[in-house]
Amino acid sequence: MIIHISDLRLRTYIGFQPWEKEKLQDVVINVQIVFDGVMAARSDSVQDTVDYKAITKNIIAMAEAASFNLLEALVERVLDIVMEDQKVQKALVSISKPHALRFADAVAVTSERVRDA
Hints:
Elements: E1 2-14, E2 25-35, H1 38-43, H2 52-65, E3 67-68, H3 71-83, E4 88-98, E5 106-114
Parallel strand pairs: 1-3
Antiparallel strand pairs: 1-2, 2-4, 4-5
């Protein structure tokens, strides 16, 4: 099964220009969480699934407390948080920075992590 956290809009310090280090900027985070959901589907119990609310809260707390030069670094930190849940088999994170380029809606970085078997 795949859990999608779609268009999580946050503000964080992102960028390497001096003005970017002083001004909160918008980022949009999308996460796909792959896990074996058979047990959760059968039991209908929250203990058998991935707690996406807790993951989201941890992502928000981290992004609001930290600063980053690069989107790549933020993507990896989000992947670290998602993979803390041992039920997660694979995760894909894409983070976009709206208005990063003059003639583009956004710039995005995507990365994937797979748990070793």
